[in-house]
Design brief:
8 strands; 17% helix; four-stranded antiparallel sheet; 3 helices
Length: 161
């Protein structure tokens, strides 16, 4: 009987060390009798590297598909400048900056960056590519350019796509 707590501790430490090797910054169980967890990941924008997005989503171990619900919060976590912004897609569709498979049934979680020229703001839209419960689940977060090195660039590049 004494070996069970030791085994549980060893498994717990192994799982904890694996979590440290990924972009996961948090993982919360949804209960003792479920294999589902809320996972929080930190993703840095690959072009505008001064922006980090924290994305939470449900991960369902031992399940063929993960739920589509997710949330996103993006913030300025470092400097970014006009050179980086000149490289982004400024069309109405923006561009995909992160993508993660959520099931073997062609469902993905995607994050798209869209530039709001009028308000000089980066918009980050997270969404599921497959309808679930009658909805394509999505969430949005914004990062204003105000008070950054990119502000002057934004002021001078109106309608310059």
């Amino acid at each position: 009987m004494k070996s069970i707590p030791v085994l549980v501790s060893a498994v717990g430490l192994s799982v904890f060390s694996l979590v440290g090797c990924s972009d996961n910054v948090g993982k919360v169980s949804l209960g003792m009798f479920t294999t589902k967890d809320v996972v929080i990941e930190a993703k840095q924008d690959p072009i505008v590297t001064g922006v980090t997005c924290h994305i939470s989503h449900v991960e369902a171990d031992l399940d063929f598909s993960d739920p589509s619900d997710m949330s996103i919060a993006c913030r300025q976590t470092g400097e970014f400048n006009q050179e980086q912004l000149s490289k982004i897609d400024r069309s109405k569709n923006g561009e995909i900056v992160f993508k993660q498979s959520k099931s073997i049934l062609f469902k993905s979680l995607k994050v798209r960056r869209i530039y709001d020229e009028e308000h000089k703001t980066l918009i980050y839209l997270s969404y599921s590519t497959k309808e679930s419960s009658g909805s394509h689940h999505h969430s949005v977060s914004t990062v204003a350019l105000y008070n950054t090195k990119a502000w002057d660039w934004a002021q001078s590049h109106k309608n310059d796509k």
